Amino acid sequence: xxxxxxxxxxxxxxxxxxxxxxxxxxxxxxxxxxxxxxxxxxxxxxxxxxxxxxxxxxxxxxxxxxxxxxxxxxxxxxxxxxxxxxxxxxxxxxxxxxxxxxxxxxxxxxxxxxxxxxxxxxxxxxxxxxxxxxxxxx
Length: 138
Fold this sequence. Notes:
Layout: H1 2-5, H2 9-14, H3 26-30, H4 37-50, H5 57-73, H6 78-89, H7 93-104, H8 118-128
């Protein structure tokens, strides 16, 4: 955020820390000034991807797969998200074993559930506009 305030947008877009955010929105709910840093980070990641600034291809792949999952079902579908990521970047034996352990414990469902109100979901993405609401995120 400091780089943005200083007008160093390019530096902010190229920062590896941009991809460290897990999207929990804790920063936005706790921000004493009432700002929404999580939303800013989401937009910065989309812009960084569009400009080819993702620090490594895996970061952009994960972000795009996550948005596709949310756009399609209204929530994250971890099983499909992991499969898309693995198909694009190869199977990492360590991640496969962790994914399998999560599945066995019931933490990852084989088929993610969809939200009930699909019209509202489509309306949200249409209102969002920009890259997240466009064909690019499909």
